[in-house]
Amino acid sequence: MKLHDKLIAKSFFEKASCLTELAACRLDPMGYEADLIARDAFADPMDFGALFPKLLILYYHKTSPCFADKDIHQKAKQCLLRFAEMLRENGTLDDLSFGTSSTSRTAEAITFIFPALSLIEKAASRTEEEEALLALGKETLRRMADALVDGGFREGHHRWIIVSALAVAEHFLGDERYRAYADTFLAQGVKMSADGEYPEKNHATSLVCDRAFFLTAIYRRDKAFLSYPRAHLRAARVFFENDGNATNTAAYGWNQTPKFSAAKYYPAHLAMAITDGDGEAAHTADTLAERYLDSCTEDELTELMLFFMTDEARAEKQNELTSTAPVRERSVFFEAGKLARIEIPEKDIAMTLVCSEQPVFFELKHKTIAIEARFAGSFFGSRAQFRPTEIIPTEDGYMLIYDAKAGYRSQLKEKPETSNWRFMDHSKRENINIQQFRVEITVHVLEDGARFDIETIGCDRVPTKFEFVTDPGYIFENDTVALRTKAGDYVFLKDGNARYYLSARTYAEIETEKFYLHTYGEDMRGAIPKDPQKFTVCMTADTPQRSTVTLRIKEI
User: CA 374 to CA 350: how far, in whole Å?
Assistant: First the structure.
């Protein structure tokens, strides 16, 4: 395994070269015209709190250019004092987005700032100044931890942030109240699927959960908490792409934000490798290190520096670990997460099928190009968009099923007590004329793509559309026309073949059967409208429907 502690230290000291000037500016803004943030009555306490661990790293790290510099130590104390003064009376930190105190942000601040107290505790011979700073740190930590105990219930991943913060507080303060309160959250159980997914199904939030459980395992000295990040990281590696990103379609929900970089997983894999001796995590950390360290923030580096500095034995474990390349399966089905992942490495193709509340149910990734599939039928408003609720493995692929029912409400049989529509008792109105709209899309995996067999059952004469959505800027052509696509272009495809050139030698071939019955697509009632930033190919039909679409990646 690489010597990550040295790589991280090199990057940290390069990016922290202006820290002392920044601290001086924050503490004495009147003398610096360039930065007046500390004069602002609404300044963020973390402007000072975030400087505290960074300055201690500069002071205590033996290769630091400011090693044992008394001025750095004094600035660290002043920053912690200013941070403590800006806390609310009850010890909480403000959430500036809402202008209120926030226990979750308070917990996040604890887990970022106070692991640095270990650097003072581990000092070979503490001076009076260090003893005073340690006492100030513990008193500030106590105020904030007490606020968490009195802060009430929190849902979702905020609970695990609070649990990890209380583990830090218990470690330094020895107060068993913090463990008892954290145990009330843990007693409710951690909701993780058998496939290793957190309920939020979001890359960034899942990594927050991983970090919280790592901290809890470290400060409570209980490796049982590593089971959650271990399971999640193994699942997440399935979705790493060869362009350095992690797919958004996967179990983490579809959105139109930029792709999430797989490099963000570096700290979690590094921590898993060293704390759990995981060779596959070590290999992934080695692979992601360079891209992460090139793009990470100073705060992210601070946490990594503290990871090694608070326990020097971790640096030694790097030499003992042997990196083992994870075995990538060509087809992975997450039954609990209702998600399938298929890779065709010889064609640089990765496909994802997912059941979710999001409109994209399929994504084909070829190198850096993603082609997403959506389906909709104009049926009773919000029930128009195809959002499969079942995914069933078949002999050569998967079947996705969506089944919706809707009807009308009858008139009231008796005169209501009020004529105000909003206050009427509508529960007395019967549901009548119930209609069904069932869609079954069977995806057959091919050696160079996929074939979609689409069948609808139930309500007749429902206009439907099947869409491929991808990046604009490439050439789209069929046998009679060719055009260079622009953002927002929306093309209706008749039966037959069409090609979308992804490079000079590669194109996506689309074959259709039994389509183009109408041109009701861009703003179909109840369906997701066209994406103004993407290029969309639309194929239309009516129910009852039996249609076929094939998507292949071809090379010239």
Answer: 17
Full-model pTM: 0.85
Which three-class secondary structure state does DSSP give residue 515? coil
Cα distance between residue 77 and residue 73, in whole Å: 6
On whether the CB atoms of residues 239 and 246 are closer than 8 A, the answer is: yes
Find the distance separating the first CA and the last CA of the chain, reported in whole Å. 41
Q: Which of 505, 470, 497 is nearest to 481 (CA)?
A: 497
DSSP-assigned beta bridge partners for residue 159: none
The model's pLDDT over 249-291, given as tens digits with 9 standing for 90+, comes to 654 444 455 678 999 999 999 999 999 999 999 999 999 999 9
CB 124 within 8 A of CB 62: no
- Spatial separation of the C-alpha atoms in residues 227 and 209, rounded to whole Å: 12
3-state helix/strand/coil string of 417-478: CCCCHHHCCHHHCCEEEEEEEEEEEEEEEECCEEEEEEEEEECCCCEEEEEEEECCCCEEEC
User: What per-residue confidence (pLDDT) applies to 487?
Assistant: 95
Which residues are registered as beta bridge partners of 365?
350, 370
Distances in whole angstroms, Cα of residue 307 to Cα of each of 76, 116, 315: 19, 10, 9
- The pLDDT value given to residue 251: 46
Within 8 A by CB and 6+ apart from 158, the residues are: 103, 104, 107
Burial 317-348 (b: 16+ CB within 10 A, else e): ebeebebeebeeeeebbbeebbbbbbbbeebb
Residue whose entry in the numeric block shows the structure tokens 């009430």? 152
Per residue in 208-219, pLDDT (tens digit) is 999 999 999 999
By three-state DSSP, how is residue 245 classified? strand
| Type of residue found at 236 | A
Contact of 73 with 120, CB cutoff 8 Å: no
Give pLDDT < 70 ranges for the chain.
Answer: 28-42, 95-101, 152-154, 248-258
Q: How many C-beta neighbours within 10 Å does residue 315 have?
A: 17
- C-alpha 416/C-alpha 119 separation (Å) is 73
